[in-house]
């Protein structure tokens, strides 16, 4: 399996395109600049079959409807943030986008619990990793040895917890119980910034010294 990282918008939110040996692909967190994502997909000859959301903050959902409508595909989000897609106060655009409110149509599939999930030829594990937001999830692909961690864990940092629904202790517990237990060679694909690994963060992340 291959992945591509596309930083989008003023916050440079990482959108990930996951592709298998065929032309099917999954789009994770299309935060903005839908045209750039579409151009990449067309250039690579890829066919999206689903949109996965690690969480529903505005900078991770801004291009959802543009892609969903163009490719007629389903959007997946955790149940605790299903209403955030429609609500600019909950998704943060009311406060951070200076009048550019983000509203997305309801998700097609609600993730109610963690566990194994299959979409087309893609099989992965949904890990509930709340703390940055109450419905944050990470998508772990054990055979390819990477995890898409959203805004839970970054290279040398962790997600902010001062937004509505954020909880610092809960985030640290999520990282410790769900992410740091993965094999150390697991590549971490974060919601912002550069790629890292579980082992690197265990050794050098100053926010995780207590672990």
TrEMBL record:
Gene3D superfamilies: Ribonuclease Z/Hydroxyacylglutathione hydrolase-like (3.60.15.10). Keywords: Hydrolase, Metal-binding, Zinc. It comes from the Bacteria. Its cofactor is Zn(2+). InterPro entries: MBL_Glyoxalase_II, Metallo-B-lactamas, RibonucZ/Hydroxyglut_hydro. GO terms for molecular function: hydrolase activity; metal ion binding. Coiled coil: none annotated. SUPFAM superfamilies: Metallo-hydrolase/oxidoreductase. This is MBL fold metallo-hydrolase. It comes from Mesobacillus zeae.
């Amino acid at each position: 399996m291959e992945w591509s990282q596309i930083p989008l918008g003023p916050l440079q939110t990482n959108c990930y395109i996951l592709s298998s040996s065929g032309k099917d692909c999954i789009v994770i967190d299309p935060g903005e600049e839908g045209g750039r994502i579409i151009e990449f997909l067309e250039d690579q000859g890829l066919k999206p079959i689903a949109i996965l959301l690690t969480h529903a903050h505005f900078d991770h959902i801004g291009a959802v409807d543009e892609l969903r409508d163009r490719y007629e595909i389903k959007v997946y989000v955790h149940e605790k943030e299903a209403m955030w897609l429609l609500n600019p106060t909950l998704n943060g655009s009311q406060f951070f986008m200076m009048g550019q409110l983000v509203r997305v149509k309801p998700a097609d599939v609600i993730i109610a619990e963690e566990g194994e999930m299959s979409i087309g030829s893609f099989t992965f594990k949904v890990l509930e990793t709340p703390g940055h937001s109450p419905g944050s999830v990470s998508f772990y692909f054990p055979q390819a040895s990477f995890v898409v961690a959203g805004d839970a864990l970054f290279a040398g940092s962790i997600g902010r917890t001062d937004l509505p629904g954020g909880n610092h202790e809960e985030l640290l517990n999520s990282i410790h119980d769900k992410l740091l237990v993965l094999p150390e060679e697991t590549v971490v694909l974060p919601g912002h910034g550069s790629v890292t690994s579980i082992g690197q963060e265990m050794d050098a992340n100053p926010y995780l010294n207590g672990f």
